[in-house]
Amino acid sequence: MVNEALPKAGQTLLINGNWRAANDSSTLPLINPANGTELTQIAQASASDIAEACLAAANAFPTWAGLSGRERAHILQRAAAIYRERYLEDSPRWLTLENGKPLNDSLKECRYSADVLDFYAAEARRFRGSHFAGDQGATHSFVFQQPVGVVAAIIPWNFPVDLLAWKIGPGLAAGCTFVIKPSEEAPLAALLLVKACEEAGLPPGTLNVLTGDGQVGAALIERPEVSLVAFTGSVATGKRVAQAAAKGLKRTLLELGGSAPFIVCRDANLDLAVPEALRRCFSHTGQICISVNRIFVQRDLLEEFTDRFVAAASQLHVTSDGLAEPAADMGPLMNAHAVAHVQAHIDQARSAGATLLLGGSRPRDARFPSDGFYLQPTVLGAVSTDMRVMQEETFGPVAPIASFHTLEEAIHAANSTPYGLAAYLYTQDLDAAFYASQRLQFGGIGINVNDVTDIRSPFGGMKQSGLGREMGEPGLDAYREMKHVRYRLQLPRQ
Ligand code: NAD
């Protein structure tokens, strides 16, 4: 697929307003996970590209930070409008090609990304400081917010457009400049969001892009120009990022992996709980940080819930072409490593006594290209909390179902992993919902709702799922530094 809007193959670096190849011309192949074919080549940034991008961002900082909130808001709003007008066809198509999600899901992600820019455009106009009289003598205190400086934004492949918007939205609103390191596995759809920002009048150097693998991300963090590392990705990489940032005492915003529990109490409305659990287990092939990883059903409802869930899961439509079948329920996994990891979780659970209720392996249907990365929607019963599938992030289309007797027991089991991103509870008992919300150690809790993302509300993890919050007004915090100016009034000169 040729697209005039996208940079040419291998020329995916944006440095100081110029799209170009790496200085040493290195490239990486971009693979379509649905069939293993090469989509194009992306640039693999070299050390000198990384240095140039960081210097460009540092040089652009005074200009961008020096604009008023109103001026920054206008550019952000224009970027959202341009993205909707010019790129809402191509960006979702590339997203489907590079990361496998069916087109309707890609479209939803891209639309939401534009909404995020609009939201932070409005926030840019609301920045306020404070002033108060000091409590000693004739002093006054002024507290205001300033942008932190150059941000290294490192993005994963699963929501590459949205998660970029979650960073550049608040960061640009606050007055920061950026060096963006998209995922090497899904960079293209997000480049079109960057293009929309450029076309909206963003000064050159305000957003720079370095495509390439993890080594590019690691080298970027080391650069002295970088003040904040805004990272979304796995816990393992997040720990490496935190260590590297700590060497320079750089600020970090870390949005990491999860293992979300879905608790179904005996008074739950199963007409709601079953389809919502299903969607949150299997959409994007289970590769969402807030995907349901573990289902806990109160003992009296276990058989009914399981029967209905398995029946519904067996009807899911898996596609090998998310463009031709935009409304499919799920597509391929991202890569061979992901297939091996998910299969290992299934196999370990089965060898430890879990029952296979559905799926469990690659689909045998010839519709699925042998070089694509597929697994059937899988449901496991009789699981125990010590199995890998109940302890680690599976990040695949697997639903393990366990039972519990008391709510206390379910909360304890839900809290028994190192993760703390999202949890879901289905009940009609308001007291039980409040009680559990207090005790569940997760940054986002959905009560009778299977999504904890809301544009106005903070999103982020407790425990090893991260540090800091994105979205809503709190999403600005990482990008701003508070400054206190204390002023002594002197007697007027005679
Ligand atoms: P990943 O950690 O493998 O990679 C994320 C990014 O980090 C990529 O751009 C990669 O190139 C880069 N990277 C790799 N090594 C690096 C290093 N040493 N230093 C700096 N950068 C480096 O994650 P992934 O496989 O792309 O994404 C999936 C993971 O992301 C899952 O664990 C998922 O839960 C998590 N995630 C979290 C959220 C959230 O908001 N909490 C959202 C989406 C995805």
Describe the protein's architecture and organization:
The chain is globular. The strands form 5 sheets. Strands 14-15-16-13-12-17-18 form a 7-stranded mixed beta sheet, with helices on both faces. The protein contains 14 helices and 20 strands. The longest helix has 22 residues, at 103-124. By secondary structure, it is α/β, with parallel strands linked by helices. Helix content is 37%, strand content 21%. It has helices at residues 47-66, 69-87, 90-99, 103-124, 162-174, 188-199, 214-222, 235-247, 270-282, 302-313, 336-351, 388-391, 407-414, 430-439, and strands spanning 13-15, 18-20, 27-31, 38-43, 130-133, 139-147, 150-154, 177-181, 207-209, 226-232, 251-255, 260-264, 292-298, 355-358, 378-381, 398-404, 422-426, 444-447, 466-467, 480-488. The chain has 2 domains: 13-256 and 461-482, Aldehyde Dehydrogenase, Chain A, domain 1, CATH 3.40.605.10; 260-447, Aldehyde Dehydrogenase, Chain A, domain 2, CATH 3.40.309.10. The chain binds nicotinamide-adenine-dinucleotide (NAD).
